[in-house]
User: Fold this.
Amino acid sequence: MGTLVRFEDLTLGYDRHPAVHHLQGEIADGSLMAICGPNGAGKSTLLKGIAGVVAPFGGAIVWPAKKPPRIAYLPQSADIDRSFPINVLDMVAMGIWTRSGPFGGIGRAHRRIDAAIAAVGLAGFETRQIGTLSGGQLQRMLFARLLLQDAQLILLDEPFTALDAKTTTDLIDLVARWHGERRTVLAVLHDFDLVRRHFPETLLIAREKIAWDATDRVLQPDNLQRAAAMIEAFAHHAPACERVA
Amino acid sequence: MYALFVTPFIEFEFMRRALVGTIALALAGAPVGVFLVLRRMSLTGDAMAHAILPGAALGYLASGLTLGPMTLGGIGAGLVVAIGSGLVSRATILREDASLAAFYLISLALGVTLVSLRGSNIDLMHVLFGSVLALDDATLILLASFASLTLLVIALFYRLLVMETVDPDFLASLTRLGSVTQLVFLAVVVLNLVAGFHALGTLLAVGMITLPAAAARLWAKELSGMIGIAALQGIVASYAGLLLSYHGGLPSGPLIILTAAFFYLLAVIFGPAGGLLRRLRPRRHLEA
Assistant:
């Protein structure tokens, strides 16, 4: 099992303030990993960095493979215009992009689209407008789209927040299925029980890396205490960081 | 009946030309307007209409009331404003609306200054209010070509436009074509406004784009239905507006837009997809 991605002294942030500070480490191909930490700890920023939405201040994100993996990224609260007149089927079908591109036809992919919709439990919802979906149904729909994207690396930012137990279980099953297909899944999560039950590996981060190991070893009282001690506010007059890797 | 509804178009060529020209505008304006409305850019269309005025005026100054220079000037000014404001909103923290307002005001002020430099009392009535009853062959061909080009481009960019509107972050995670799509769409808007000002003038050109689309939003729940209904309303408004202006001896351009506005009011009141009546008199709720 090779390395999928390596963080080399990685610093990410906004407006010169670091949100992820000098992170060092690597993620093995096929990992199922949770990213935990208090609010403002840089969890979402790390995902954005991996997805290429935020550029590093310092250090690097290195993809050892010749061809970087196809990435699917589900942001925390997607900027979806729910008043737009589009139905579930068309929304999910966007996931076929890697095959269709901007201009190509969907053609025989219809079966795969139907299967993805069925897999998230939305069969029968195909012609429903997205504006009429509940929060859980919307998240199921976005998971169906992720299914179709056929990505090697899947980034999920708080995917189960505000979902009921049934929906969470159903979607966790999909994550387990991706793991079984040797895809790499990174998920930002706050529910430690859920993490302990389903995620073998955890990165605990509070701007700096607190612990990164097997989940049981990471989610220990002393680690969690250290993470909670992080001061959330940026220091307005912090001096420039001089640390060398 | 026949004399009332058909004869004016049989007897007078200028009526036939006006009808053909405005139908071309209505057909192309429908999808453009629907996407403007759905992207919450209805007023962007209006701002762009102001932005093309100075370009058209410059064309007029350079070579008088001729089709080519005025069209090129309008397209040029519109594209400069569209691309300039797009670049600024991408490169700075300014939102699209703020930078667009800035750019179209620069364009407008610059245009008025340039016009006044010539010091002559130029008759810009043609540019401001159009001359739908005086469309010559060249103008008709221009309107038809612009309309065809618009429909072709919208068809080609349809998927990108939908994705860019409903879920821009997702599109950005797949491709960089999102910003290209925005610019292409703005260029199509400019194209339609320039085509529209030959017939309806810069002030009313946007009416043929926005009004039928806003009304269609209240009639249809699906995107394709909205575009179809918008086109239908635009065509009927063209015909009815021309007829009303003929029989009433009133100016044609404004009456076409007023007819479209009448359809808009009908939709606001009776539209099944969120109109007033449906809100005021809800039907009984369902079992499940």
